[in-house]
Amino acid sequence: MTPIEASTRPRVAGDREQEILEAALEVLADVGYDRLTMDAVATRAKASKATLYRRWNSKVALVIDALLSQKEAPPVPDTGSLRGDLLEAFCGLGGLVEHKTVATLSSVLTAIDRDPEFAAEFRTRVVGPKIATSLAIYERALARGEVRADLDPSLFGPALAGILLHRSFMLGEPPTRELIARVIDQIILPAARP
């Protein structure tokens, strides 16, 4: 959906929109994306399906808006060091130490693989801002001389998240501030330094 289409869709009045988005997140957490239906969200929100469809023309649009409603994008950290910026990005507001962040990702993983429309919207609207933050962090580190000049931020940037999510989903070890600091200190910084 284009930004123009999103901005011209009718709004649900007052706080009602947020209540519906919260209901969508609850249903998403309970059953995952694949089994989430507009009917289930309408029931949970005590709304009619017509109310939902007046605002969201599809499950994809509703779920993406619900995911984005959880929080505003935090500013790009600027602590003066790559280590500090990475810790702030991953341990601060919306970071991987928040159980809700990892649980939400878990509930949409199969949809990313199975639903091309959802995957495209998720990558653009949810993951896109996180990628932009990562690129900004590594570009500043490059400007400060903290990382190798040949480092490719678009390739290197997702490494920390990849390690943490692997440990969480595959090994059952949820991200903590201590684990994030260990991965940064033992893997990310040594690999990135000039």
What does this structure look like?
Residues 37-56 bind DNA. InterPro entries: DNA-bd_HTH_TetR-type_CS, Homeodomain-like_sf, HTH-type_TetR-like_transc_reg, HTH_TetR, Tet_transcr_reg_TetR-rel_C_sf, TetR_C. Residues 14-74 form the HTH tetR-type domain. Keywords: DNA-binding, Transcription, Transcription regulation. This protein is mostly helical and 194 residues long. It is built from eleven helices and no strands. The protein starts with a helix and ends with a helix.
List the helices and strands and how they pair.
Elements lengths: L2 H6 L7 H20 L2 H8 L3 H7 L3 H11 L12 H10 L7 H16 L1 H28 L9 H4 L2 H13 L5 H16 L2
Helix pairs in contact: 2-3, 2-5, 2-7, 3-4, 5-8, 6-8, 6-11, 7-8, 10-11
The CATH topology of the largest domain is given as: Tetracycline Repressor, domain 2
For the biggest sheet, the summary is:
none
Residue ranges: pLDDT <50 for 5 or more in a row?
Answer: 4-9
The end-to-end distance, rounded to whole angstroms, is 42 Å
Strand content: under 5%
- Quaternary state reads single chain
**Highest CATH level, the class of the largest domain:** Mainly Alpha
- Overall spatial form: elongated
The beta-strand count equals 0
| Secondary structural class | mainly alpha
Structure summary:
This protein has 194 residues and is mainly alpha-helical.
